[in-house]
Design a protein that fits this description.
about 260 residues, alpha/beta, TIM Barrel, 10 helices, about 45% helix, about 20% strand, globular
């Protein structure tokens, strides 16, 4: 099982650089950023790459209702990111017909982004199957270990139907460590639970109490035990829930390190 470390886009370069270097020292094999209207994840990846060129880079995910493939391609060129080291996660965002949107956008993505490994944000059964059949990877979000195992089965089924091997399966696991860990996880989760219909439906399917989907623990031993349960993921991306400071983020990175 691989281990990546993820942050929110827009992290201060004075934090991003040292954090990526620390992740290298700790044995992570990739560093990730999300992407949101206030900041581009690819720009955060460029800061990571400057101090940790040996690590794979991942963005999860870019919503295609906000950024066209041509804009993503322009950003890659502007930032000088190594396409061979990049996992580029894409999702439907607030599109009315997300499954149709992602299926129809794939040829345009392939044309605009040659050499880039495309990872599909997938939560429901049909999107998971599409990821397995047509994309280079699947990216899960807000799942328990048990739910992730069922979702992986759907990715594998989609790949099998297309006559392919299952692509890599990645997933964010929100992780908070320390005395305020439960509060941090609950705050993060509450934002997503009502973000849009896709998330509302997903959390309804999860049937988990609020504030419990992820890892909120006191120390490294408990963090390792909790993360190890995500056996359905080829790479667990530890989404650090901490203040956007080197020391605070490093506490989570150290506790969750492989």
């Amino acid at each position: 099982m691989g281990r990546g470390f993820g942050v929110a886009a827009g992290l201060d370069p004075e934090v991003a650089g040292p954090l990526a270097a620390r992740c290298t020292e700790l044995g992570y094999d990739s560093v990730w950023s999300n992407d949101h209207p206030g900041a581009k994840g690819l720009e955060t990846l460029a800061e990571f790459a400057a101090t940790a060129p040996e690590l794979d880079l991942g963005v999860a995910v870019i919503a295609l209702d906000r950024q066209a493939p041509s804009e993503i391609a322009t950003d890659l060129e502007r930032l000088g990111l190594d396409r061979s080291k990049l996992w580029l996660g894409v999702g439907a965002g607030f599109s009315e017909k997300p499954l149709t949107r992602m299926r129809e956008m794939l040829p345009e993505l392939r044309d605009a982004l040659p050499g880039v490994r495309l990872v599909l944000a997938a939560m429901g059964p049909k999107m998971c199957a599409l990821a397995g059949a047509e994309f280079d990877g699947a990216f899960f979000n807000w799942m328990t270990p048990e739910f992730a195992a069922r979702a992986r089965n759907q990715v594998e089924a989609g790949a099998a139907e297309a006559g392919l091997e299952c692509p890599p399966v990645f997933g964010y696991v929100r992780t908070a460590v320390g005395p305020d860990a439960a509060e941090r996880l609950a705050k993060e989760e509450s934002f997503y639970r009502d973000l849009h219909a896709g998330y509302r439906n997903h959390f309804d399917r999860l049937e988990e109490p609020e504030g419990t989907v992820g890892v909120a623990v006191a120390d490294r031993d408990l963090a390792q035990k909790s993360l190890a349960a995500y056996t359905a993921l080829d790479t667990v991306v530890v989404r650090g829930l901490a203040s956007a400071k080197v020391d605070s983020m490093s506490v989570v990175a150290e506790a969750a390190a492989p």
